[in-house]
Amino acid sequence: MRSIGIDVEFPKEKCESRDCPFHGNLKIRGKILKGKVVSLDPENTAIIEKRYLKFVKKYERYERRKKKISVHKPKCIKLKEGDEVMVAECRPISKTKRHVVIKRV
């Protein structure tokens, strides 16, 4: 196993995927986000929902917003719907996936 540059615990299982930050060649860069798993339907993919607040200047209040992000799920990290996860930005893995799951919170 190689260090990914972030202080997270390594998965107990081993995978042979080249798109795994722990066992493959995928490098982590950029932002680290937290979100909730909404769907695990596509293979090796998780859809997470990131909730945040946006300030509306006209009304001087915050509004709640949410964004769905497609992330790569390595086989060594087991997830189910409703889990809180930490994801990190990486190189583009497919047309819509630019993040990878690094930890289940």
Describe this structure in words.
The structure is a single chain. With 105 residues, the chain is mostly beta strands. The chain has a single domain (28-104), classed as OB fold (Dihydrolipoamide Acetyltransferase, E2P) (Beta Barrel), CATH 2.40.50. Helix content is 0%, strand content 47%. It is built from no helices and five strands. It has strands at 28-39, 45-56, 61-72, 84-90, 99-104. The protein has a five-stranded antiparallel sheet, with no helix packed on it. The chain starts with 27 loop residues before the first strand and ends with a strand. The mean pLDDT is 92.
DSSP strand tally:
5
If you consult CATH, what is the topology? OB fold (Dihydrolipoamide Acetyltransferase, E2P)
Measured as a percent range, the helix fraction is under 10%
CATH level 1 class label: Mainly Beta
Structure annotation, total helices:
0
What's the arrangement of strands in the largest beta sheet?
A: 3-2-1-4-5
CATH architecture: Beta Barrel
Largest sheet report:
5 strands, antiparallel
Outline, from the CA principal axes? elongated
Strand content: over 45%
What's the N-to-C terminus distance? 21 Å
* Integer tally of domains: 1
Return the string of H and E elements: EEEEE
Structural class: mainly beta
Runs in which pLDDT lies below 50 for 5 or more consecutive residues are none
Nearest-angstrom radius of gyration? Answer: 15 Å
Quote the average pLDDT.
Answer: 92
